[in-house]
Amino acid sequence: MKLSKFKYKLPSDLIALHPTPNRDECRLMVLDKKTGKIEHKIFRDIIDYFEEKDVFVFNDTKVFPARLYGNKEKTGAEIEVFLLRELNKDLRIWDVLVDPARKIRIGNKLYFGEDDSLVAEVIDNTTSRGRTLRFLFDGDYDEFKKILYDLGETPLPKFINRKVESEDAQNYQTIFAKNEGAVAAPTAGLHFSRELMKRMEIRGINFAFLTLHVGLGNFREVDVEDLTKHKMDSEQIIVTPETVKIVNEAKDEKRKVCAVGTTVVRTLESCVTTKGRLTEFEGWTNKFIFPPYDFSVPDAFVSNFHLPYSTLLMMVAAFGGYENVMKAYDVAVKEKYKFGTYGDAMLII
After folding, report:
1. How far apart are CA 283 and CA 285, in angstroms?
2. Which of 119, 252, 266, 288 could disulfide-link to 232, CB 3.0 to 4.6 Å?
3. Closest Cα to residue 342, out of 177, 167, 216?
4. Which residues constitute the domain of residue 235?
5. Example GO molecular function term (predicted)?
6. Same domain, 290 and 267
């Protein structure tokens, strides 16, 4: 499978800049992967495709305000710092991306906040863009974290080409977000409202939760034509015994298991035995799913409409069938569905 097969023409005005006012009122395209049949619905209609004891699996990761703007010592040059992960809590050491990277060297100090309330020192160059920062802060950890997060901004992806607004802090977070650690939202989960989940609960649909802390690898461009040579960034995952029990019982009873988002699919398929049983796990995954691929756990899949050439589109095509999905994307463009993080959704059954 080649990268060039995932090209399609996406008009820029179809990239959603804002979500729908109500989470469950975006458009929903339903694709039957066996027949290729397409239906056009509203997201809250998703409940009509599932029955009592079917299972929805959600990613309960929580996004933190990962984007900071600071200034370099002496020159005052503005530097964007994107917090990736905390490496050492006691020493205040973080793995970050910096932009522009060429201006930052080991030993440079960066100042954040109007009154330079936070200072960091570059202690390592890890990649061409990546750096390791040590924040120079003498107060206690909770005080440090509060200042860091107060200065941070909701990390909307760059293709949402506008300034971050106060509403984004809530909009760019699922209603069930619990375990902090993501720098990007699991976007398929954004469409689930409290009202919709209550209706699902009343119908007898079961919920299971796992955690994948979404990293920036989701947005990293694939730069090889041969997809077997692409390496995914590793992301931290947690699958609990409770989730294992709910999912395996549903599989045993021949109930539908619906994965909400690419992050859930990646996690489920990273933690499965050769006999198709989900197993508990806490660690890291760099699993890259592209066509052809035989799925072991999910029977249905909810996803947003993804950008050309993205690894997310490749996973959707693996699940729904390459021809089916690329045809559905052509229909989505013609019908003016909204694409990207705040866009519309697709259910593949």
Report:
1. 7
2. 288
3. 167
4. 3-63+168-348
5. S-adenosylmethionine:tRNA ribosyltransferase-isomerase activity
6. yes
Helix-helix angle 311-320:262-270, to 10 degrees: 70
Domain contains 71: yes
Q: What is the dihedral of CA 299, 300, 305, 307, to 10 degrees?
A: -10
> Residues of the chain whose pLDDT is less than 70?
125-130, 218
- Residue-level pLDDT at 129: 56
Among 125, 190, 124, which residue's Cα sits nearest to residue 156? Answer: 190
Residue 127 confidence (pLDDT): 57
Whether residue 304 contacts residue 185, with contact meaning beta carbons closer than 8 Å, is answered with no
Please check whether residue 301 is in contact with residue 33, taking contact to mean a CB–CB distance below 8 angstroms: no
**For residue 53, what is the domain's CATH number?**
3.40.1780.10
Instruction: Please state, in angstroms and rounded to a whole number, the distance separating the CA atoms of residues 276 and 265.
Output: 14
In a domain, 292, yes or no: yes
124: CATH: 2.40.10.240
